[in-house]
Amino acid sequence: MINNEDFLDEIGDSHFSSNAKNPLRADAFDITDEEKIEKIKKDVENILQTLGMDLTDDSIKGTPNRVAKMFVKEIFGGLNPSKQPKASTFDNNYKYGEMLVEKNITVYSTCEHHLLPIIGRAHVAYISSGRVIGLSKMNRIVEYYAKRPQVQERLTMQIVQELQKALGTEDVACVIDAKHLCVNSRGIKDIESSTVTSEFGGKFKDAQTKREFLDYIKLDTQF
């Protein structure tokens, strides 16, 4: 019989998520960012001390505060809904009716199982049904959902769902090709492998439209 700790390890090592949404508690934002930083700072100090590090050394004494600020303000900043980018859209006055593709959007995220980096590229496309969105907003949407403890499948779905809502159309697609340092630097330690995930909505479920999108981004993977 597998005990609960072994089961949870198996979930993490298999990079499996049991939740299609980021698992946030209802009281996640009852304390301020500054209060969170102070609490995390103490936790990081405890980790380093437990590992045997000398926190009086000039090189490391500031690490707990740096890590705490990084967690709250940077790499997990996308957890805070107040930081969600405003997805401003505009009338498609020039009547552009073909696919619009924004490719090679940089993805920096963090695996929620080991808190190690996920680094790669996102390729996003949509077909306007009357509204268009600024190109930089597509990058900002990717960045917002990436800046949280994540699994790549969920991130891919969240990007598509956010753009579908903003543009008022199902015709949105996203492909992410990324390396997971929890695979590359620990465990199996396979430095060559990467993970490709996709989410296709509306017209992008059609084989010809999907193939056109994949041709644009030069991806040979079959879906």
From TrEMBL:
The keyword GTP-binding applies. Residues 40-217 form the GTP cyclohydrolase I domain. It holds the Pfam family GTP_cyclohydroI. Belongs to the GTP cyclohydrolase I family. It catalyses: GTP + H2O = 7,8-dihydroneopterin 3'-triphosphate + formate + H(+). It is an enzyme of class 3 (hydrolase). This is GTP cyclohydrolase 1. Pathway: Cofactor biosynthesis; 7,8-dihydroneopterin triphosphate biosynthesis; 7,8-dihydroneopterin triphosphate from GTP: step 1/1. The lineage of its organism: Bacteria, Pseudomonadati, Bacteroidota, Flavobacteriia, Flavobacteriales.
